[in-house]
Amino acid sequence: MIPAQFDYVRPAAMHEALQILVDHEGDAKILAGGYSLLPLLKLRLASPTLLVDIHDIDGLDEIIETTDGLRIGSRATHRRIHENPVVQNGYPLLVDAAGGIGDPQVRNWGTIGGSCAHADPSSDWPAVLIATRATVVLQSVSGERSVAARSFFIDTFQTAIEPTELLTEVIIPRAPRPSGAAYAKLERRAGDFATVGVAAQLSLGPDGRISAAGIGLTAVAETPFAATAAEAALVGQEPNEATFQAAGVAAAAESRPGTDAHGPVEYKRAMVKEMVVRALRSAAGRALAQR
Ligand SMILES: Cc1cc2nc3c(=O)[nH]c(=O)nc-3n(C[C@H](O)[C@H](O)[C@H](O)COP(=O)(O)OP(=O)(O)OC[C@H]3O[C@@H](n4cnc5c(N)ncnc54)[C@H](O)[C@@H]3O)c2cc1C
Q1: Ligand 1 centre distance from Cα of residue 118 (Å)
Q2: Which fold has domain 63-172?
Q3: How far is the CA of 34 from the centre of ligand 1 (A)?
């Protein structure tokens, strides 16, 4: 199908973009990579009257490590994140997740901000932000606000972003050493959206037990979510197979998958358990390597 008619602007500065969102409140849509928005326009599932292309706004694709943690600009593409040396050296969870998104073309164009703003329950970044307890930064003409990733994803394709706000960056806090994290994705074919995705992060205390845990689940509920029962099953325990299996059982019980082309509910619950165990094994191995 052909999209409904729309106007297109390409502001050169952030303040211009934010003012345009105010002037066209509810009618304008930000255009980042376009890999989710353009298909929606073509199917006429969205019909904004104005697209605000953010490609000329400086600094929105930067990736910087600070004392707060890793700050990733919203327009950083999946590929840019995957290839970034700081990410490659210190954030294996992000390397796992970015490298498994779609195909090279999707990774060249799709952005972390677009992925989070779109809030498809099958997108991979949201679970990563949930597991790491990241923060999402939103800007409007009135100023800036930060929203915890765990509160940001409200429902399918629905987030805490207001129509006059632009997502500027995500901040992934630095985990205390020793910590490890991993993303395990089950897909039917290479390049597919996840049937089940699991982001897991573990920190170990001086006694070798798990002192903190984060688990984000992809594609097994109406929205990405934190598997808090699984997290509770991990904290205070030895990082061993029995602990991982218990967390997998807990995560399967708290997931809310639906039956679709990827399989029935029972299969998906079984896969949640399996993928949680795999992600935890990998995360624990990475944490132990830091000791
Ligand atoms: C064939 C195919 C395979 C894919 N496979 C995967 C996969 O395996 N895993 C996965 O996670 N994703 C996958 N995707 C989705 C892809 O990663 C998208 O690019 C991404 O979800 C959206 O990012 P974008 O930059 O293209 O956003 P756009 O399409 O430009 O925008 C998406 C939405 O976010 C809004 N938006 C964008 N940027 C901002 C911002 N800075 N502030 C506020 N709102 C904003 C837009 O207005 C729009 O509503 C796939 C897509 C395709 C087409």
Answers
A1: 6
A2: 3.30.465
A3: 6
